């Protein structure tokens, strides 16, 4: 049976000038709902300091992370391996929200908690071998508004966007191949931000 696809196609314009697609869809829930999601994620997620190996050194980041998925997938990045926890009802609700807003499907979610503007994330691509190449990544933000930046690997051209409370951004297609992204640290923000990136892991 055919049905009309309402809200199922990303409507934000592509922010990238070439070799990738990034869409900022803005708020996908009301401020009141966003406040509730922020508080319950803060309270109920199994937040842990991230362990990483950078230039051969073991470090513990101030930023906290958590990793949830359909199955206990192992996931390696920054040369450390984590095992996914099972979805909480709230994460499943957010996954469905992002799926209906994007028309994509996801089987995992990486969460980041930045306590204030001094915490950020350095330039990188989400191009781990466990991820389905080119699949949509849906990035939900709650709490403090923060700047998010892209830099083309060859031309070094940069593009930035502000990510608001309850907002959704997508990265698709060639974005991870040709562009880096980062969350720059800032002295202007003194409150926390929670980010959820919904992803599609390879299951083969
Ligand atoms: O905090 C963000 O908005 C981005 C996080 C990110 O790039 C990642 O988890 O790979
Ligand atoms: Fe990323």
Automatic annotation (TrEMBL):
Q: Kindly give the InterPro entries that the UniProt entry links to this protein.
A: AlkB-like, AlkB-like_sf, ALKBH3, Oxoglu/Fe-dep_dioxygenase_dom
Which Pfam families would you find in this protein's record? Answer: 2OG-FeII_Oxy_2 (PF13532)
Question: What residues form the membrane-spanning segments?
Answer: none
Q: Which UniProt keywords apply?
A: Dioxygenase, Oxidoreductase
Residue ranges of every copy of the Fe2OG dioxygenase domain listed in the record: 105-202
Q: Is Oxidoreductase given among the entry's keywords?
A: yes
Highest taxon listed in the record's lineage: Bacteria
Q: Protein name, please?
A: Alpha-ketoglutarate-dependent dioxygenase AlkB family protein
